[in-house]
Specification:
The chain is built from 18 helices and no strands. The protein has 401 residues and is an all-alpha fold. Helix 11 packs antiparallel against helix 17.
């Protein structure tokens, strides 16, 4: 009996790592693949700048709205089955965007946004449940896979669109790796599923200041990330870079985020709390944005893109790590993840749309930069508060009460 238990536990943990990596690799490509071909989409479908901005904002809105659904699904089906369902939803949504016109594009974007949102909430809970002593390290693995998937999609979508003669087919190809992940995940889930957790009450987090501080930090760093996904290629083309180079730079920026995410465990291991880390990363994000918009030479813009990528990767990794570090157990981590990502992504949805509108009104990128720097200030203040070595109350305590 003991030998059986000892073999089952490692097998489940290995299965959790495989599932974590597979799902993470599929979550960013549906979002990062749009911006590099946004000009082609606008020309082909006759979209205005406002509608193009809505297309880049829509996934972020979905990430916020559907994040609130995720805790209930997790309570009913368990983390592994929920993640398997997310892969099915992602496959359907990605495939739908390869066919039809504007309706299929916007509808498929809503579908993939729903799948990404639910997976985003479930994965931190799975990490806290199976790796409670290694939350920063496992979150770094998750973030690395997430950013690498996005980087490959951003870099490849323009060459594929040129080679295939269609932006629809190029973004539709994202469904193929999702299908591969789904096939492997079916085997993993059948063998290692832990089943649904016990019912909890998460509503108390809405009244907790620390939960809101984590939420604002999550929202602000996400806002700036989706400004990059939606507008960086457009900004770079305005600075004189070709569409292919601009898409490649977005891919490089996304790939470098993986390196940034790997620094989070090292930084957290050497610090009693995360306040200094949060403020330092905020300053680097602000410097990166400023260099991209105001840099006087192509080399400066390249360096700023690298700095921004490292800082944003580490900031995103820190935001996800805070879910586990500020929670006493896995169910509370999932609840905090749902709360912070639901409200945080709705807050972040303002970013791409606001940048598009202010650019259209001002006719330059300086005014949008001022908006972004204001968001950096809010991120720094929230990180200073959320980085304290405290815990939100357990959702199990709320249930018993």
């Amino acid at each position: 009996m003991r030998a059986q238990l000892e073999t089952q536990v490692p097998r489940r943990l290995i299965g959790s790592v495989v599932l974590l990596a597979l799902v993470a690799l599929t979550l960013r490509p549906p979002i990062t693949a749009i911006a590099p071909v946004l000009d082609r989409i606008q020309a082909d479908l006759g979209l205005s700048t406002t509608l193009a901005g809505l297309l880049t904002t829509l996934p972020v809105i979905c990430l916020g709205v559907f994040a609130f659904v995720a805790p209930g699904l997790r309570q009913r089906w368990g983390d592994e089955r929920v993640l398997l369902g997310c892969l099915v939803v992602l496959f359907v949504g990605n495939a739908a965007r390869a066919f039809g016109g504007a309706g299929a594009l916007f509808g498929g974007t809503v579908v993939v946004g729903a799948g990404i949102a639910v997976a985003n909430v479930a994965l931190p809970g799975l990490i806290k449940r199976d790796f409670p002593q290694h939350v920063p390290a496992m979150t770094a693995l998750y973030t690395m896979c997430l950013t690498l998937g996005g980087a490959v999609a951003a870099s490849a979508v323009v060459p594929l669109a040129v080679g295939l003669g269609s932006w629809q087919f190029s973004i539709g190809l994202i469904a193929i790796p999702v299908l591969v992940a789904l096939a492997v995940a079916l085997v993993v889930v059948r063998r290692v599923s832990a089943g649904p957790p016990a019912p909890v009450a998460a509503h108390g987090l809405w009244r907790n200041p620390l939960a809101w501080q984590v939420t604002v930090f999550m929202g602000m760093q996400s806002l700036m990330a989706y400004v990059v996904f939606g507008w960086l290629p457009v900004i770079l083309q305005g600075r004189g870079f070709s569409p292919e180079t601009a898409g490649f730079m977005l891919g490089i920026q996304a790939a470098i985020q993986a390196a940034g995410s790997l620094t989070v465990p090292l930084l957290c291991r050497r610090s009693r709390d995360q306040r200094g880390i949060a403020v330092g990363l905020t300053l680097l994000v602000a410097a990166g944005f400023t260099g991209i918009v105001l840099g006087t030479a192509p080399g400066v813009v390249w360096v700023a893109t690298v700095v921004l990528g490292v800082a944003q990767g580490a900031s995103f990794g820190l935001a996800l790590t805070l879910f586990g570090l500020r929670s006493p157990d896995s169910d509370t981590t999932a609840a905090l993840s749902g709360t912070a990502q639901g409200a945080g992504y709705l807050l972040a949805a303002v970013g791409p749309f606001a940048v598009g509108v202010t650019h259209e009104l001002a006719g330059n990128w300086t005014v949008p930069l001022v908006f972004v720097l204001g968001c950096c200030a809010a991120m720094g203040v929230a990180g200073l508060m959320a980085g304290r070595a405290l815990h939100v109350p357990s959702v199990h305590a709320a249930t018993r009460a």
